[in-house]
Write a structure and sequence with these properties.
The chain is of the alpha/beta class. It is built from 13 helices and 18 strands. The strands form three sheets. A nine-stranded mixed beta sheet has the order 9-8-10-11-18-17-16-13-14. The chain has a seven-stranded mixed beta sheet with strand order 2-4-1-5-3-6-7. Strands 12-15 form a two-stranded antiparallel ribbon.
């Protein structure tokens, strides 16, 4: 009849939000914990198990006509209850029921812990829907002693939403049963290899294919223990009660030696570095190259100089060497730095970009003649990950009594590969695999340095350079993972305490 007709169609709403994290130590992750525990499935789909739009439907070229939706009030109640359980310390692990459904959720929790699973699906339900629906929901891990109370609390808040579905299993097998029958069994390694293969294929085209293959092959190893810290020769510092195990333990009235936290344009690690040295009893002073060049800062006033990590000069290729040349090619600056390094009562530390910079200043640093240049990573990529470093026996003042310790530490660099092998007595740290052995294998050795070399010192131990970031790990809570028994300060804090003690008792 020529008149327009309005049509009502379904509408989706995307909501983005953010909130402060008041205590990072209470962050929940999918990593399953050891011990006597149970896994609980929280289903916010009211048992409907709709599969439209799911990964399963797409794998079979289907779309479907019944897709999951959200009940805002139920979702609100879910969030509130999870927060209550979390604040009560009852949640050991958490993972939303995400892309791929319950099977993917459980598998990813297994991958994070390199653990097997023993799962029993609710009886009388559609098996495919139980495993692959992407209805809203989550899987949580709680101690067996807390399981009944958690189950009751969840079902009171969201009636008929939650069931116990199993537990982690010893070994590497993932087993799923329903109605008394075994419906699926496979190894964690095989499932993780399938899960990671697409990423591996892309990585092999984009990056160094040899590195990509090494990382993918490691996924399939069942005997890899994962990150395994070892502490030798010292106690983990613990300031949980306002105290520290520092052998110095300076009093508040003790003068604090000044350390120059040295940076140029683009460096971004100065705040963490200053915090670490301040906590160890130093007075950290923010110092730029221009401060020294213009005479606003005199290096004679400092006991230590620390070249920080980050993206100096926009992290263009060889940026650390450009930083060094700003000193080497300036006659007066070169003389001032040489005088500082030669003073027997000073120490210096270079981290990441600062490591590259100090290595390029080796002609000014007594005993640094063997230090290598640091070149582009073998992977052809910027590497930001958690790796393990073994502290070697060396004269470095920073690593006194720490030799043999294996510690997790962040790396974040694009040019960290040592150019050549260096005399063993000057190597103070090497990358190791999860069994504690020196390695060339990626990603345990993230840059391909020969023999895993990643930290060096001088014969007198006063100057040390290293590619990893200990200042981003001096507190346990800075690490993405650490053993639960570690206190407020991580073992890396000991190197800063060692420097403070050396200044008082050189």
């Amino acid at each position: 009849n020529g008149k327009s007709k309005s049509v009502t169609s379904p509408m989706s709403v995307i909501i983005s939000a953010f909130a402060p994290v008041t205590d990072i130590r209470r962050t929940l992750t999918p990593q399953l914990q050891t011990g006597d525990t149970k896994l609980l499935l929280i289903d916010l789909g009211k048992g409907l198990g709709r599969l439209s739009g799911s990964a399963l439907a797409q794998a079979f070229g289907q779309i479907g006509d019944r897709s999951p939706d959200a009940d805002p009030q139920l979702l609100k109640q879910f969030f509130k209850t999870i927060q209550q359980l979390s604040k009560a310390g009852k949640l050991l692990a958490y993972h939303d029921r995400s892309d791929g459904g319950l099977l993917t959720t459980l598998s990813e929790m297994s991958f994070a812990a390199r653990s097997g699973l023993d799962i029993t699906l609710p009886g009388g339900t559609d098996t495919l829907a139980s495993l692959f629906t992407e209805e809203l929901g989550a899987v949580i891990q709680v101690a067996s002693a807390d399981a009944a109370a958690a189950l009751k609390q969840l079902n009171l808040a969201m009636p008929n939403s939650t069931v116990i579905i199993g537990k982690p299993a010893i070994g590497q097998q993932i087993t799923i049963r329903q109605d008394g029958k075994l419906i699926y069994k496979n190894s964690r390694a095989q499932l993780q290899a399938w899960w990671g293969e697409t990423s591996y294929r892309i990585q092999a085209l984009r990056d160094n294919p040899g590195c990509a293959k090494q990382e993918f092959q490691n996924i399939q190893k069942n005997k890899d223990p994962g990150i395994s810290p070892v502490i030798k020769g010292f106690r983990v510092p613990d300031s949980g009660h306002g105290k520290s195990n520092s052998t110095l333990n300076p009093q508040p009235s003790t003068p604090r030696p000044k350390v120059a936290i040295f940076r140029v344009q683009g460096v971004n690690g100065q705040v963490e570095m200053a915090a670490a040295f301040d906590r160890a009893g130093f007075a950290s002073v923010d110092v730029t190259l221009n401060d020294i060049a213009n005479g606003r800062v005199n290096l004679d006033d400092f006991s230590g100089l620390v070249a920080c990590g980050g993206f100096s000069y926009g992290d263009v290729l060889g940026a650390g060497e450009g930083w060094a040349k700003s000193i080497l090619f300036h006659k007066d600056l070169s003389k001032r730095f040489k005088h500082f390094f030669e003073r027997p009562d000073t120490f210096s530390l270079g981290v990441c970009n600062g490591c590259q910079m100090l290595s390029a200043l080796k002609e000014l640093i007594p005993g640094a003649g063997q230090w290598p240049r640091f070149l582009r990573n073998e992977s052809e990529q910027f590497e930001a990950r958690l790796v393990q470093v073994r502290i070697q026996k060396s004269p470095s003042i920073f690593f006194k009594d720490m030799a043999g310790s294996i510690l997790p530490v962040p790396v974040a660099h694009g040019e960290g590969r040592a150019e050549q092998v260096v005399a063993a007595e000057l190597v103070s740290g090497i990358f190791v695999d999860n069994h504690g052995g020196p390695t060339q294998d990626y990603p345990f050795n993230p840059n391909g340095s020969p023999e895993g070399i990643t930290a060096l010192t001088t014969p007198d131990g006063r100057a040390t350079i290293m590619m990893p970031h200990p200042e981003r790990a001096f507190l346990s809570q800075q690490l993405s993972w650490h053993p639960p028994e570690w206190g407020k300060e991580s073992p890396w804090f000991q190197m800063f305490l060692n420097a403070r003690e050396w200044v008082s008792f050189p």
